[in-house]
Amino acid sequence: MTVDLYSYVRGYSRGMTTLQHILKKGADHAAAAGVPETEMLRWSLAPDMFDLRQQAITVIQFTQQWLARAADLPQPVTIEGEPGLAEILARVAEAQAFIDGLTPAQFQGRDDVPLTFDLGQIKPTLPVGQWIAGFTTTNFYFHLSMAYAILRNRGVPLGKPDLFAGGL
Q1: Once rounded to an integer, what is the mean pLDDT over residues 86-112?
Q2: Among 77, 138, 139, 68, which residue's Cα sits nearest to residue 110?
Q3: pTM of the model
Q4: Distance between CA atoms of residues 141 and 105, nearest Å
Q5: What's the rounded Cα separation, in Å, for the pair 76 and 61?
Q6: DSSP sequence for 96-127
């Protein structure tokens, strides 16, 4: 499967801007309502779903780790523990800086390179292009949308334009 892997970089960059934007709007709303930040970060849509904190962490980690895998770069450090909002926003900025440092040359010829990844119950080997186009990008936008949905569900005044805060 041949794809322009570098073309995905811009989408992840826009997503980082959107994540930062909606988290800040969520924090402003929570503060105005007297909701502690720690409680806001525990908001979720259902008891068996990731909370807002984990949704944000997943978006950040999918961005950095999968783009690094696609470009055959060292893996960025995993976010551990339960970071507060300031640390999450700092990690968004780090992810954006990582993205900004990527070049098209780092992705050239990588589309069909086989990559094996352990998903827990299965350990498939797929071409890098298939991982990015099918698995990674789907998960990236899913978790970004869930963060948006959690905040919207809690009354944060978000609309469709907020989901595209990073641009089209």
Answers
A1: 97
A2: 68
A3: 0.95
A4: 25
A5: 8
A6: HHHHHT--GGGTTT-TT-EEE---SS---EEE
